[in-house]
Amino acid sequence: MPHQNSLPTTLLLVLAFLSAPRVFAEELSANTAAAGTAPIKTTSNDWPWWRGPGRDGVAADGQTPPISWSDTSNVAWKVAIPGQGHGSPSVLGAHVFLATSNRAAGTQTVFCLDRKTGKTAWKTIVHRGPLETRGNKKSSQASCTPACDGQKIYVNFLHKGAVVTSALDLTGRIVWQTTVSNYRTHQGFSSSPCLFGSLVLVSADNRGGGAVVAMSRATGKVAWKQARPKKANYTSPIVLRVSGRDQALMVGTNLVSSYDPQTGKKLWEIDGATTECVTSVVTDGTRIFTSGGYPRNHVQAVLADGSGKTAWQNNQRVYVPSMVAHKKTLYAVLDAGIATAWDTTTGKTLWKKRLGGVFTSSLVLAGGNLYATDESGQTTVFAASREGLDIKAKNRLGQQTYSSMAICGSRIFHRVATTDGSRKEWLYCLSR
Q1: Please, which residues bridge with residue 100 across strands?
Q2: Burial class of 350 by CB neighbour count within 10 A (0 to 12, 13 to 18, 19+)
Q3: Does some domain include residue 64?
Q4: 48 backbone dihedrals φ, ψ, rounded to 5°
Q5: Are residues 222 and 243 located together in one domain of the fold?
Q6: In the listed set 189, 205, 234, which residue is the last one of a domain according to the structure?
Q7: Which of 23, 138, 319, 334 has a CA between 20 and 30 Å from the CA of residue 404?
Q8: Do 179 and 270 belong together in one domain?
Q9: Considering the domain boundaries, does residue 369 fall inside one?
């Protein structure tokens, strides 16, 4: 597919986009400037990609998001989102980005909304043509969470039997598109892009044989590519600083794999994970924590030093909702609606309590509280505590939710659907 360079005027937009709050994370890789690509910077007011600024579901310190809300209380704004998608919103600077699809129109679209008002700044149809009809009933044709580096928005879509990564500039113009791999649909496709230095990392595990691919953020040119086993899998690549180095981590296809995010070199790989995983890896700095749900349930703590050792494991079913690791505690909500906490070092169960409901959305930690949203649209807010389940509030929006929250600037960005009569999606901005 063709590659184009961004327009010079984009630089002015970049400056406006980045003008504001304090820097939350410094340049992710020193080689970024050398590669001629502007550094990636985020602020404490941003949630720029899947699982937030630290890629771990943890909001920046000092956040005071609401713990209670309704359709009429603590709502800053609410807007209808045409079509269907299960990807989470991304927030950077003055804008919110969201992927959606419309089966009737045969379109896959990226929306850019004004952060203060929810008004549509622009929308770009990224793909046209018949959408995939196979897959799990919970899947969608827009399950990716866009990533933004302050210059471009990156998004993955399954289109005409292949996974394609697209980069759009801040005006909504498509700058480049690169095919990751062909894709044989089983349950669906949901992997989100991960930004590191001058690169964007994507994955497309599938029964036809997928790959983990790193592309230039500037041009879409492939920098490295690692073939993956011919097995269905749904997790996203995550780059974490663990055991003293940056590691691009993948779980599933019966493996736990670590790659050098800059070169693609395999750092280590062990047998251990189950075949199909959805959750993203989290870490306590020494161990990485993985989970999956088919053909077996598992939660696993793996030493990330290349030794291949498993610190501990259990057979709990944390298949879809990603976990949160915080202060030597691993928090999870099992798909079947049970909240639990384990000691990260030993794997000891600290507490385990039923919330009720069925869970797809991932946990998010903000302001000392964990936010857990079930598929019916009910969010349980409970304290991040090793002592037991301390519920602060239960709130409901809509009747269906598969997306995960973005929490930044002390606001919650929450994608839900109403199902009265016909299904309709909404994006809420919640604030005290």
Answers
A1: 109
A2: middle
A3: yes
A4: -85, -5
A5: no
A6: 234
A7: 23
A8: no
A9: yes
Per the structure, the count of domains in the chain is 3
Length of the chain, in residues: 432
For residue 412, give its domain range: 57-81+360-432
Q: Give buried/exposed letters for 118-156 (b at 16+ CB in 10 A, else e).
A: beebebbebbeeebbeebeebbbbbbbbbbbbbbbbbbb
What are the tokens at 267? 């750092």
- Do residues 202 and 290 both lie within one domain? no
Q: Are residues 318 and 240 part of one domain?
A: yes
Whether 114 is in a domain gets the answer: yes
Q: What is the pLDDT along the chain (432 residues), one digit of tens a residue?
A: 433 333 343 333 333 333 333 333 333 443 443 345 788 878 889 999 999 999 999 999 999 999 999 999 999 999 999 999 999 999 999 999 999 999 999 999 999 999 999 999 999 999 999 999 999 888 999 999 999 999 999 999 999 999 999 999 999 999 999 999 999 999 999 999 999 999 999 999 999 999 999 999 999 999 999 999 999 999 999 999 999 999 999 999 999 999 999 999 999 999 988 999 999 999 999 999 999 999 999 999 999 999 989 999 999 999 999 999 999 999 999 999 999 999 999 999 999 999 999 999 999 999 999 999 999 999 999 999 999 999 999 999 999 999 999 999 999 999 999 999 899 999 999 999
In what helix (H) or strand (E) does residue 12 lie, and over which residues does it extend? helix 10-18
pTM of the model: 0.91
Examine the domain organization and report whether 227 and 250 are in the same domain.
Answer: no
Q: Do 143 and 226 have their domain in common?
A: yes
* Same-domain pairing of 99 and 226: yes
List, edge to edge, every strand of the sheet that includes 75-81: 75-81, 424-430, 411-418, 406-408
Q: Quick one: 240 and 319 in the same domain? A: yes
Long-range contacts of 354-359 (CB under 8 A, 24+ apart): 355/380, 359/320, 359/321, 359/333, 359/334, 359/335
Q: Which of 316, 346, 376 is the last residue of a domain?
A: 346
Query: Mind giving me the DSSP string for 282-294?
Result: EESSSEEEEEE-B
